[in-house]
Amino acid sequence: MALVPDVVKALTAKEIEVAVEPGAGEGASHSDSAYTDAGAKVGDDVWGSDIVLKVTAPTDEEVGRLRKGQVLIGFLEPLTNTALAKSLAGAGVTSFAMEAIPRITRAQSMDALSSQANLGGYMSVLIAARESGKLFPMMTTAAGTIPPAKVLVLGAGVAGLQAIATAKRLGSVVTGFDVRSVVKEQVASLGGRFLEVEAVKDAEGEGGYARPLTDEENERLRGELAEAAKRQDVIITTAQIPGRPAPLLITADAVRGMASGSVIVDLAAESGGNVEGSKPGETVEESGVKIIGPANLPSQMAGNASALYAKNLQNLVELMLDEEGNLKLDFDDEIIAGACLTKDGEIVNERAKQAATGGGS
Fold first, then answer.
1. 209 is catalytic
2. Are residues 95 and 341 in contact, defined by beta-carbon separation less than 8 angstroms?
């Protein structure tokens, strides 16, 4: 849900009128009466608002309900859903993509990708622990000692680091890997061991993300990861590059090399998958190894996910208002400018514009 009652209270305290669709908060355990008590108007007439807040991208029908000059904020898939960007531009909507929030210190409180990735990383470990046939912590009993599970986390962004921290708290032996050497200290600080490989020493790219690897680098890296996979009980993959298919890290041969009963959780399944054979929203089995491709993990913790996302939106919306609470978009502000997808009938985000015109990203 894009708004929770606590954030509604904060907005209405600034004399901002808030409208909420009936039943919109039920999935996050917020009743219509909770929104009404917080000061919101619950009704169907939300699309006439100056600012429309959403979680997922709007449908064609919803875009048709927006008017010229209206502000839309949500996850708008700016680099992959080019049809939506064109549609919003054609409708004259001023839209802001949460995925395009600049990765700068001042924008951290608005960074919804990070807030939701934290939940995804946490949930991935709980899923792995539930599906694995092994205990995560070491357990000593009168009948003998059970060694701790060995967990490998591929990708040390926000989701990966949270997965490392959670797996460590559950008592497993954790190894982390990323093609960006800068995260080595972060992995160690969470109690994980960093997997050293010869194939790629450092591949940090634009905006703090990993750059695409060459074919030769990919082939060598997959070979080394296949060897590391043989020693693991659980693998969690989180590696993604915005606007591109997720890099393939674990091949089918690597899966077959793992012990029967092992578990892989592929958080990149929805964007192509880090694991060969993974399917979004499904669990498949290969040679006794479970490959789980969870879809929209934050929604499994809808209350917490909504609270974090609503706070991200509140901080962004407040940046768009003047001292009297009136809408005032300052495109000289790097956050406003960076997050803007469409304005005045055009796609203004440069990478989204390139994607829409076939110029790549």
1. yes
2. yes
Residue 83 carries which DSSP code? H
Rounded (5°) CA angle 263-267-272: 110
Rg of the chain taking only CA atoms, in angstroms: 22
Nearest one of 220, 270, 293, 259 to 56, comparing CA atoms? 270
Longest dimension (CA), the chain: 72
What does the block give as tokens for 71?
A: 């502000």
Residue 274 φ/ψ, nearest 5 degrees: -85, -10
Statement: residue 73 has pLDDT above 60 = yes
The active-site residue, picked from 70, 87, 95, 111, is: 111
Q: Residue 361 — pLDDT band, cuts 50, 70, 90?
A: very low
From the candidates 108, 253, 256, 333, give the one annotated as an active-site residue: 108
Choosing from 35, 116, 172, 209, the catalytic residue is 209
Q: Residue 77: pLDDT above 70?
A: yes
The CA-based dihedral angle spanning residues 42, 44, 49, 54, taken in that order and rounded to the nearest 10 degrees: 90
| Model confidence pLDDT, tens digit, residues 191-207 | 999 999 987 777 666 66
Q: What is the mean pLDDT of residues 116-128?
A: 97
Catalytic residue, chosen from 103, 106, 231, 256, is: 103
Task: Render the burial of 157-187: b for 16+ CB within 10 Å, e for the rest.
Answer: bbbbbbbbbbbbebebbbbbbbbbeebbebb
DSSP codes joined into one string, 250-285: B-HHHHHTSPTT-EEEETTGGGT-SBTT--TTEEEE
What six digits make up the tokens of 313? 């939106």
- Whether residue 152 contacts residue 235, with contact meaning beta carbons closer than 8 Å, is answered with yes
DSSP state of 72: E
Please report which residue ranges of 79-111 form alpha helices under DSSP H. Answer: 82-90
Closest by CA to 165, choosing from 255, 262, 236, 247, is 236
